[in-house]
Fold these 3 entries.
Entry 1:
Amino acid sequence: AFTIGGPKSSTIGQRMMGLTVPMWYGGKVTPLIAAFHALLFWFSLTLFFPILLWCLFDSQKRCLHDILAGVLVINRPTATAQAGI
């Protein structure tokens, strides 16, 4: 809740991979939605592992817990991409 719902909108690992987690409409994720997203992730991971395979068949490659929480996981724009290089 404090990492995804915080100012950088990503966990430490996501930042290292150049990812960020906004809401589906482009807004910031609130700490409450981030906690809900984390609970859905751990619930699906521990009890319903096959649900994580959902993203293999989804056209947008979103996991079910991302869809239910209304968040996206996207690549952050890099300095070279913003400069058009």
Entry 2:
Amino acid sequence: MHAMEYALTLPADYEMEVIRARVARVGHVLDDWEGLGLKTYLMRERGVNGSPVNQYAPFYLWNTVEGMNTFLWGGAFQGLSDDFGRPSVRQWTGLSYEEGGAAGSPARWAVRRCQPVPQGVELAEAMAGAVGETERLAGQDGAVLAAAVVDTARWELGHFSLWAHQPSGADGEVFEVLHVSAPGRGRLPRGRQW
């Protein structure tokens, strides 16, 4: 499993209905994309759920690097780059993935939390802790799914979860889910990824 994200931080007075309309118009394009586990079309609005910014921030879990590369280099990503400029694309290695108890429900909210891997800790312990956090999140009421990923260039862990209802006391940035494309979600490897 491979994860990818880019975030477009928009002006404070940006009309976020433009993003909603864009996703309604083009979100279906990846509904059957080869190699894609899932793409979540995420948005947060300044002043809503504690967000300090307007942001469009899709998050992807890929089953194959070839599918991701086809998306990036094959033309689909070019439209976004043409409209908003080319964003920095973050990539992570997958650590764990779990379906939640609300796996059959539509995802309405997402939570993303990034944290550094502390210096001086055993890497095996830190990664096992991330796997445990994935299991904990997936076991919460209303959880659709949870994943943990790591960026070894920055030594940063990422925790990502989808929710059927707005999670109370969410630890991380809260996003509204506008659409989910999940052609290969059932093929995402469950559990620990090593």
Entry 3:
Amino acid sequence: MPSTAYVYVPAPSRRNLEIGLAEGLWGWRTPTLDRADARAAVQSLAEGDFLVLAHKGPDCRVKPGEWSHVGIKRVVVTRVTSPYFTDDSEVWPDDVYPERIGLDILTEETDVQGPTLGDAAMEALRLSANKQGAALVTDGIDGVVRFAATTPSSPSPGDTGHVELNGPDSEVAQVLVRREQAKLRRKMLNGAIVAACALCGRTLPTRYIRAAHIKRRAHATPLERRLMANIMPACLLGCDELFEHGHIVVDDNGVIQARPRPTDTADLLSAAEGLQGRVVNDFGPDRAGFYAWHRENSPS
């Protein structure tokens, strides 16, 4: 059964939190893990386990249970991608934090109230705050499941995106990733009820528009996943799938090029060639590198 680790990040460590999320890493000072069983807790985490980072809460020097209904300014739910390892390379500006794990960000929320995570999770965070950010590991994923249950109404077809997650409890992880993708989509659409597909240019009701990662989410860094330059509106009338599977690519001038394959049917080839020569919407230097990655990593 997967485990969940809870780590409290104090207000002065905001920059370290941002750097860790951008790099897909979290680390601890050696003295922090020298105490009690703190190192063993981190070493027990396996690939696929969850780690919840909580930033900015109230005074932690209170009695057990008194955090059950407090508010946390920011909660980031991640999954372990690289179990415990040591590395002295420079990542954070104020210290080395050599004892590390690799992370994949699933989603985050602001102004989270205690019941969203549950009593056990909030007590683990309070203890972590009292132990200089040591990880408190609990069996199971009850807190993450509760957090996922706060997801707004089911996403529309345009919200879901392409999710590539495997391993234990991938279902709850997919719920969280889809929630994050829904946020990107809302930011991309900015309240519009119709939008133009970046590839074919057709204007459609937004339920037919997906927020598609240009560089695939599975291969993008945590920072790249959240950059709007890596997100394009792609319609569900065929463009999203043609791009996702590499039947069309975008060249260095923003022009769509079809990539025919021997196994293509006549109709598939016709759909891809119908977009040949069109300049994608909003092409620019900030997007060019992502389109180049897609071009170089798609079947030819």
